Amino acid sequence: MESSTFMLRDLPHEERPRERMMQNGAESLSQAELLAILLRTGTRQESAIHVAQRILGQVGGLRRLADLSIEEMMDIKGIGPAKAVQLKAGIELGRRMSNSRLGQPVTIRSPHDAADILTEQLRYLQKEHFVCLFLNTKNHVIAQETLSMGSLNASIVHPREVFRAAIKCSSASIICAHNHPSGDPTPSPEDISLTRRLLEAGGIVGIDVLDHLIIGDDGFVSMKEQGLM
């Protein structure tokens, strides 16, 4: 009797992503293979790997998949409630792992230190998120907060929200960051204008704005390093 679904164990041994991961490490697997491990089973017509490849092509890659809700995932052929929950849980664990380092004292010595904290959290989002790292006098990160979630092309934040949050946690300085959903981290005229307003407001309240990072798909731009602040 024909099986109702393709399973990873039905593939030839050398094509099974679980076995390849155990032998060669997770870094040796493609995005589709990693996704197939989370899916576990395919459909009557497709293996789990074929389903994973189709999903990535349909939604536009991992960056888009990560931002889907459980309900939106369930609209994709081959993803039911259980698979949607598994995928969302895996994505959320990855995001929390990126943020878990804040449980220990983290010192910001360069824009790269701040980017290491924020890049994986922001690079896959479809809307602009404006985030601040709040630092003490030793440049230790004492808090992180998302202060604005904008539309597809714009993030709106007012300096009063930024510095209200900074004062609340007794921050000596801040590093601002936001993502560009387009994937291109080039600062826009609006980014430059906002940064200058933040610098002016910081000077008034006595809290230094150390940098403003723009996060893209494959990198970031430090406005401090670019001489834009």
UniProtKB/TrEMBL annotation:
The keyword Secreted does not apply. Coiled coil: none annotated. The keyword Hydrolase applies. GO terms for molecular function: metal ion binding; metallopeptidase activity. Keywords: Hydrolase, Metal-binding, Metalloprotease, Protease, Zinc. Pfam families: RadC, UPF0758_N. Belongs to the UPF0758 family. This is MPN domain-containing protein. It comes from Paenibacillus durus ATCC 35681.
